[in-house]
Amino acid sequence: MNLQPYLHFARQLAYRAGRITLGYYNKGIQHDLKHDDSPVTAADHATEEFIRGEIEKNYPTHALVGEEYGEKAGDGNPFRWIVDPIDGTKSFLKGVPFYSVLIALEIEGVSRVGAACFPALDEILYGADGLGAWCNGRRVRVSEVSRLKEAVFCYTSWSGFRTKDRLDVFERLHEECFFGRGWNDAYGYYMVATGRAEIMLDTAVQLWDVAPFPPIFREAGGFFGSWEGEEGHTFGEGFAVNAALKRKVMKLMRSV
Which pTM value belongs to this model? Predict the structure, then answer.
């Protein structure tokens, strides 16, 4: 299957959607709380509305699921678009530039195309099976660091490790790695995919938080999936790592 048209569409759409978010960024935007107490803003709604409209116009028979407006069934075909209009809304609200717009295409349950746009940084990470992983037109790959003592460990939330009773993993990685930083949400995965960090862990994620990353990491030479080493975006947790450290990190996580 030729995925190039889908990759081009996802990349362009993520970029255009990112321009919408910038119209609200650092403007003192207010927020509401959803049922899970996570914040949502007018920017989230406007951005997802735009993305959904473009997908429905260009691929009317495809299924679609987004964080803010839920699921639209397809016409019995295996294509489903997965959308997070603003990943990192808390960062967005505080004027922190690490938020992103995430768009992925799932085919028969497998994420095959992904784009992650960081509008405030003017960076866009994207990739598709067989087509490479790219950032702003430059091919990207994970690092070749093979020693934990040289590795950078990223995470979204210390409290997430505590809530999931996995503080032991958090503490051991801080002990074993060169250093750890809370470069959170999609930005942490971006750091690993581009070789600037080696490990990213999330204890709890939704489908739309991570759907772009399996194909990006396959093409960048790394791994994205569950803490148990199962590749994919549907496990409710996130684990990204370069190829050289995957076994060591999984052994550490299992040992504690």
Answer: 0.96
Extract the tokens encoding 112. 């095959």
State pLDDT tens for residues 127-178: 999 999 999 999 999 999 999 999 999 999 888 899 889 999 999 999 999 9
Tell me how far apart the alpha carbons of residues 217 and 213 are, in angstroms, rounded to a whole number: 6
Contacts of 98 (CB under 8 A, 6+ apart): 88, 91, 118, 120, 121, 183, 184, 185, 187
Domains of the chain: 4-139 (3.30.540.10), 148-255 (3.40.190.80)
Instruction: Name the DSSP class of 16.
Output: H
Q: Are 133 and 126 in contact (CB under 8 A)?
A: yes
Distance CA 4, CA 69 (A): 27
